Amino acid sequence: xxxxxxxxxxxxxxxxxxxxxxxxxxxxxxxxxxxxxxxxxxxxxxxxxxxxxxxxxxxxxxxxxxxxxxxxxxxxxxxxxxxxxxxxxxxxxxxxxxxxxxxxxxxxxxxxxxxxxxxxxxxxxxxxxxxxxxxxxxxxxxxxxxxxxxxxxxxxxxxxxxxxxxxxxxxxxxxxxxxxxxxxxxxxxxxxxxxxxxxxxxxxxxxxxxxxxxxxxxxxxxxxxxxxxxxxxxxxxxxxxxxxxxxxxxxxxxxxxxxxxxxxxxxxxxxxxxxxxxxxxxxxxxxxxxxxxxxxxxxxxxxxxxxxxxxxxxxxxxxxxxxxxxxxxxxxxxxxxxxxxxxxxxxxxxxxxxxxxxxxxxxxxxxxxxxxxxxxxxxxxxxxxxxxxxxxxxxxxxxxxxxxxxxxxxxxxxxxxxxxxxxxxxx
Length: 427
What we know:
By secondary structure, this protein is an alpha/beta fold. It is built from 10 helices and 16 strands. A hairpin with a 2-residue loop joins strand 4 and strand 5.
């Protein structure tokens, strides 16, 4: 029996274990924000991986955004050395999940198994991928104990809020340096026959328009900041949104609508603060002297970040030319440059062949519309040989009744295991 056949049998024999592992991970509610139960899930993974001979290290991201004594940002990095020298393959999964939201028909943290699917917040994004990578590594170790190189598995914090308490912190500490790690697979839910090469860029900013407070019955004595912001939005509708729609990329971004530049207005707030739910009175009659808008600009690898910012600044200058009392401030909140691994990269070639051999069809190459932790591995770790590949349907992420298919996890585990054979098996 070939090594590949033995691996496939080892993965298949772990079906029940894969289900139980995924359910256990879902049942630890690692909500972010605020960052609950990070230590608990890291300790769970510590026990699991240490039992398989991994050397484990729990790393707290002291001083990172969000880290506090109440909600410490814990991460785990586990490493299993082979019998011979060779390269290191690293599977990185984030442990945090987003808020539950409304509309669930199952317990969001119950991990219910129904019709071959495991339901729960984080099932798809991305505790199913984490479980599949662990099963793949364990199956590989069973059939190929005398491998060359090393396998690493990490569970990291805060990907859903930028990854600064997780992969960014670890990258700054050298955990993703090319002399330590040579291949990285991030099991994000991009579908089991897709390889995600990278992601678009992002520029978040807060725009604040200024006014002057006055009595609401005499608005002519004040200056309404909300009306100023309305003029900004009108100019965006007239000139910026049509211009963005004309920008197209050669990146294989999915879905198709994300092949253009986009801008989302995340939030707007002007005037008085909203009152508490138990407040039953009316608001005070005041002209708002401040209005704030947060924008989320996603841009393409063909665009320059300075040009992205300048487009917004030009909108504000245009409005200022038309409104005598218009004044504003712009505060950058977040920036990430686009990244895309070449199809010729070793990890891409290996995983593509494993997909073709496992699924009987060629791998599809895609780019994510939003960012994920590849940005930190690339920019901080200086490691280019990195992709996202994992089970799950991307459209289910952050939705009610999120689920991951058991068969999809098993197929992805086979792909990951075959990739380990190609990269680390001596023969």
